[in-house]
Structures are given as C-alpha cells and as structure tokens.
Design a protein that fits this description.
Mean pLDDT: 89
Shape: globular
Strand order of the largest sheet: 1-2-10-7-8-9
Distance between the termini: 39 Å
Number of helices: 12
Order of helices and strands: EHEHEHEHEHHEHEHEHEHHEH
Number of strands: 10
Radius of gyration: 19 Å
Helix content: 25-40%
Structural class: alpha/beta
Largest sheet: 6 strands, mixed
Strand content: 15-25%
Length: about 325
C-alpha cells in the first residue's frame, strides 16, 4: 500500500447551467489524494494519528456503521502507519461481510459489533471507560473523526489545494506538514457536503475575508448541525491548538437536498450522478457529494449565486461506499 499522498488537483466544470448562471465552478478532487485514505477522511485522521504516535499508542479504536467511509479509511491508515485498529460497528454482524467491512478486515482491523442502544452512548465517559477496560490502552477516535484534531486537519483542506496537475507526491503528510496556496483567495464560495460538521468547521476557520462556506447536510432536518458547528468553532478557538489567522468565515446550511435522509437515494439522484460522471469525468458518492453537487446545480438554476462568483466544490471522497450502496439497491429492487 502506497505511503505517497498526492496534492489534490482542481478541475473546472463547464455546462450550460453554469454558463447561464454566469459563475466559474471548480471541483477540488480530494478523492484523488490516495487510493484508500482520501477525501476529508484523511484530513480528519491526520492529527489524530500524530497524537496517537506522540503518546505512544499502538492501537486505534473508532466507530462507524457497516458502510462507513471512516471505518474504511481508519483501517487503511492504521495499516499504513503501523497501528493496530479496532472498529466498533453499529448493529449486528451480517455475513458475508459487505465490501467496506471486508476491506477493513483485510487491512487488519478487528471488528466489534455493538447494539444500537449501547452505540448511542459512544461519546460518553462511561462507554470510553468500558472500552479501555475491555481492550486496554487504545487511542479512541470519535465516529467520523469528529473532534478538534479533525477540525485542525480540515483547516488544511483549502490551503492544501494547488492549481496543478496531480504530479507531485506529498511525502511529508504523515509528519503533519501542510501546504499553502495563495490562489485559494480566488474563490467566493466553498461548498461541501455535511455529516458531522467537522469539515465545515475546519474550512470556515481557514477562509479569508470575503469568502463564505456553504454546507449541504446529508441528514434529514439538518438544521440541528448549526449548533454542532458553533460548538466546534467555539471549542477549537478556546483550545491550545494552532489558531487560524482570521476570524471564522461566514457560513450557512442549505438543508433541502438530503433526498430523504442519511444514505437515502432515489432514481433522480442516481441519474444525476451517472450523467455528471459521463459528462465531466468525476464520479460522485451517493451519500455525500452527489447530494451537494445536485444542490449546487439546482441553486445555480435559481440564481442563488451572484454573477461572476467563483465556486469551489469540495469532493470529499467516499467512493468506496458506492459499491455497497449499489449492492443494497439491487437487493431491494428484487424484493
């Protein structure tokens, strides 16, 4: 497995919808950074891995569902950087393992299943103490990498964006070194799918005056995430972690494109994803990026953005989940 991470390329998108809206639209291809540890998952894991290494932990423990991109990426990252990994999976074991969990096991991850009632207590001190007693000294990473280390890593997403082809390997990523790119000032709006709000919080802390972040929650009734975002921003700014050079940029939630809720899809979204890939050569994952891209295109039709605005859409990876999702959809279609 490669230890080389690549700087994410930026791809401009052109279409009649974009032309009529009078905007420039670009995609930051975080999905191309690494075959297995890519997207926002790498940025959320990066400083958790560094802290675990600095504190001499040898085992990582984290949480996720059966199709979790975070479980997939943590298993691969643990294998890459010499950690044992334990994945606490929500729900009961189902055999044969789906592609996500099968990959995690191949990377050396030990899977432990937890009933949903107990799983809901995953962020409590009581459950953390239980896990430490059961598994010994493990470094616990929250579900989705949603902690201040995750926010810190996501502050580097836009700074790491470089206006070059995918040519120069980044060999120093594991040591926590980051890149900066002055051209990031060029974008008026940074758009991202939103699940735990960690990525949005990090991006908001990294932007410059005149820029704003727009998040598209993939959960039904996603407006509750506003409180999560404020909490992450407040706690990060009150911490001893490296402070941003600017005040948090303005941000907003657009909650109308969840397609029924988390991991819910319909024929319209599937068709959009297929057509987008065929036209622009960019595959989208159904759970996150497809919903955000659909939302942006719909807002362009409505005149939501100003003429001559420049948009950067963050492709947060997660394409591995499409395999399991497609298998699930095929099973449901036969019922």
């Amino acid at each position: 497995m490669s230890l080389i991470f690549f700087p994410p390329p930026i791809q401009q998108i052109n279409s009649e919808i974009i032309h009529r809206a009078g905007v420039d639209l670009y995609v930051l291809r975080l999905d191309l950074m690494h075959p297995w540890v890519n997207g926002n998952k790498w940025f959320k894991l990066k400083y958790n891995l560094l802290e675990a290494k600095e504190k001499n932990f040898t085992t990582l423990l984290t949480f996720g569902g059966a199709y979790s991109n975070h479980i997939y990426a943590t298993a691969a990252a643990g294998n890459l950087f010499g950690f044992r990994t334990i994945g606490v999976i929500r729900g009961e074991e189902r055999l044969p393992l789906n592609p996500t969990l099968s990959f995690a096991v191949q990377q050396g991850m030990r899977l432990v299943y937890m009933n949903r009632e107990m799983y809901r207590q995953r962020n409590t001190p009581a459950l953390e103490e239980y896990l430490q007693q059961r598994f010994g000294q493990v470094f616990i990473i929250p579900e989705g990498g949603s902690n201040l280390n995750g926010v810190r890593g996501c502050m580097e997403i836009i700074g790491d964006a470089m206006p070059t082809a995918l040519t120069e390997p980044v060999l120093s990523v594991a040591e926590g070194r980051s890149r900066s790119a002055g051209y990031a000032y060029a974008f008026d709006h940074i758009c991202v799918a939103c699940g735990t709000a960690t990525t949005l919080a990090g991006i908001t802390l990294s932007l410059h005056q005149g820029q704003r972040a727009i998040a598209f929650p993939v959960l039904k009734n996603g407006s509750f995430l506003a409180q999560e975002i404020e909490s992450l921003l407040t706690n990060y700014l009150a911490s001893d972690l490296p402070a941003p050079s600017n005040s948090p940029a303005p941000w907003e939630l657009v909650c109308d494109y969840h397609f029924g809720g988390y991991a819910k899809v319909n024929d319209e979204l599937l068709l959009f994803s297929q057509q987008f890939r065929e036209k622009h050569g960019i595959p989208l994952d159904y759970v996150y990026t497809a919903k955000m891209f659909y939302g942006v295109m719909d807002l362009l039709k409505q005149g939501f953005f100003g003429k001559s605005d420049s948009l950067l859409l963050v492709h947060t990876g997660g394409l591995q989940g499409n395999v399991g999702m497609e298998e699930k959809l095929q099973r449901f279609s036969k019922i």
